Amino acid sequence: MIAPLYHADTVIIGTGMAGITLARELRKLDGETSIIMITGDDGAVYSKPMISNAFAQGKTPADLVQKSADQLSEDLNVQVWAHTQVTAINRPDKAVIVTSVEGRDVISYGNLVLAMGASPRPYEVEGSTAVALPAVNSLQDYTNWRDGLGDNARVLMIGAGLIGTEFANDLAVAGYSVDVVDPAPRPLSRLLPDALGEVMQDALSAVGVTFHMGRVVTGVAPGEGGSVARLDDGKRIAFDHALTAIGLVANTELAKSAGLDVGQGIRVDHYLRTSDSNIFALGDCAETDAGMLPFILPLMAEARALAQTLNGMPTRVQLPALPVAVKTPALPAVVCPPKHGAQGEWVIEGRGPDRRALFVGPDGETLGFALTGQETKARQALAKDMSALLAA
């Protein structure tokens, strides 16, 4: 390996919410430690969760940009290497090899943080090489997709999970015709119990979303004046643009090639340390003992703890009850799912759109909750009670 020309106490790969939040937390503790952030895109700062309700907020893709890479660099006193790809991690020499239009460089590190996020799970069916079935996972993805929409477009949404449901609401309110296809019986089936999934489907149907639940797209083909999707029951849906939202896959290739321990994500301990004591991971690419945590509040808790650890004060990640807000104006919802494998049952209260569902354990303790409509006002009190239980 050639001698490193650059060095930083902390090198962060990724300038998404995980990487930026960590850099911000580090700066609260130490204004001078050297930080280099590396990203393959332009390094612009934006809130990814805002993308799926941009129409409702009246925002264009350009409006979603909060800061440029130069502003980020100045505000946090960090170096931002934009349009730069990390091609390898040299663990023995504690360095990363990067390439850009300017060539190949080597950056040595004291600690390396992998905040590389996750990529959309691809959806491939018969005809998908001829008819695009894109996903949106970045502001550039969204800009490209939205620029092609045009007026009065018919949108085929594949996936009725968190992202698919939010996009469906946003597009329907903006006046687009939206057909949603998902093999589950109800939208948000991994987060909401069936009773609440049903009221969510009713609310979104009322604003113009058409659901095809329990169905799968088996093929797509160009059609006259657009494209046509074929479902597994033989039904055809005409559409102009498709959007897939069927989940994320952690970006682990770089970690795997460096010999780090990898499962669904990059495996980390309670301190977010990987199998290499000088390499850490957080956010959508990290696999904790609680599994994958692709939500904002866990990410922020991870960043606060990791900043302390990198600043010389080893701090375990403590995850209290962390509710997830579903951005569906047609029916606001908040979910705090029980831990994977938790024993218990859902107890449903309320009528109409205002529902409260508590996941109750064998001893009567609340291990999770889901709220819709006016019941979402109870989120803080329920989360506080759950956090106290988890800390006991």
Give a quick set of tags describing it.
392 residues, alpha/beta, FAD/NAD(P)-binding domain, 8 helices, 22% helix, globular
CATH architectural designation of the largest domain: 3-Layer(bba) Sandwich
Strand fraction: 25-35%
Residue share in helix: 10-25%
The tally of structural domains comes to 3
Q: For the record, what is the CATH homologous superfamily label of the largest domain?
A: FAD/NAD(P)-binding domain
Termini separation comes to 51 Å
Oligomer: single chain
What fold name goes in the CATH topology slot of the largest domain? Answer: FAD/NAD(P)-binding domain
What is the total tally of β strands? Answer: 26
What is the global morphology? globular
Computed over alpha carbons, the radius of gyration is 22 Å
Runs in which pLDDT lies below 50 for 5 or more consecutive residues are none
Count of DSSP helices? 8
What's the mean pLDDT score? 93
What's the CATH first level of the largest domain?
Alpha Beta
Could you give the topology of this structure?
Elements: E1 6-13, H1 17-29, E2 35-38, E3 45-46, E4 65-67, H2 69-76, E5 79-81, E6 85-90, E7 95-100, E8 103-114, E9 118-120, H3 139-147, E10 154-158, H4 162-173, E11 177-182, H5 194-206, E12 209-213, E13 217-223, E14 226-231, E15 236-239, E16 241-244, E17 248-250, H6 253-257, E18 266-267, E19 279-281, E20 286-288, E21 291-292, H7 296-310, E22 324-326, E23 333-336, E24 345-351, E25 354-360, E26 366-372, H8 379-391
Helix pairs in contact: 1-7
